[in-house]
Specification:
heterodimer; A: 113 residues; four-stranded antiparallel sheet; 0% helix; B: mainly beta; six-stranded mixed sheet
């Protein structure tokens, strides 16, 4: 079955530590996205990528970094510069430059130790 | 920048009552999409509306796109406990078609 796989499901970060969230898709989608969701809140866009080796900042990119070396993969690193990283992180993908809906992974819950 | 607001933020109904959430965009949209997120889950696409004034139905759910293509609504008739979740509308970003701006969401709680 085609889909988006996010791992791990739960992640704990220590002070000053960088952590990387994985997102892999086998939908053959060019566009991929990372969102942050805080309790009771909507989805805020962190970074997005329309094509391999290219990505753009979203609305809340500070303290985060991404890479897009392969079409299938779009990992998100939460750096130590992100002072309030506790949130639910969602990865999504869709067909580039279309109005096709986004498909989401199951998400990663990140907490501070 | 583009903003998409939803009201109400939260609604608690008894099973069998109707529910409506409203979505308003600061800009004209080429289309509007609706997603549902169950508690602890991820958003799942429900439907897309494209035409001005368009109305689509999915069983007990009725979706409407405004004439000016700046607002939309989702109405659920005779809610059930399976309707519990947060409903988001989303519109394409004016600069990048595949990028979406999500609404603030409406959380629906249904009790027996």
């Amino acid at each position: 079955d085609g889909g988006i796989t996010q791992s791990p499901k739960y992640l704990f970060r220590k002070e000053g530590q960088n952590v990387t969230l994985s997102c892999e898709q086998n939908l053959n989608h060019d566009a991929m996205y990372w969102y942050r969701q805080d309790p009771g809140q909507g989805l805020r866009l962190i970074y997005y990528s329309q094509i391999v080796n290219d990505f753009q900042k979203g609305d809340i990119a500070e303290g985060y970094s991404v890479s897009r070396e392969k079409k299938e993969s779009f990992p998100l690193t939460v750096t130590s510069a992100q002072k309030n990283p506790t949130a639910f992180y969602l990865c999504a993908s869709n067909i580039r430059d279309t109005n096709q809906p986004q498909h989401f992974g199951d998400g990663t819950r990140l907490s501070i130790l | 920048g583009q903003q998409v607001m939803q009201i109400p933020q939260y609604q608690h109904v008894q099973e069998g009552e109707d529910f409506t959430t409203y979505c308003n965009s600061s800009t004209t949209l080429s289309n509007i999409q609706w997603y549902k997120q169950r508690p602890g889950g991820h958003p799942v696409f429900l439907i897309q509306l494209v035409k001005s004034g368009e109305v689509k139905k999915q069983k007990r759910l009725t979706f409407q796109f405004g004439e000016a293509k700046k607002n939309s609504s989702l109405h659920i008739t005779a809610t059930q406990t399976t309707d519990v979740g947060t409903y988001f509308c989303a519109g394409p970003n004016t600069g990048t078609a595949s990028k979406l701006t999500f609404g603030t969401g409406t959380r629906l709680q249904v009790t027996l």
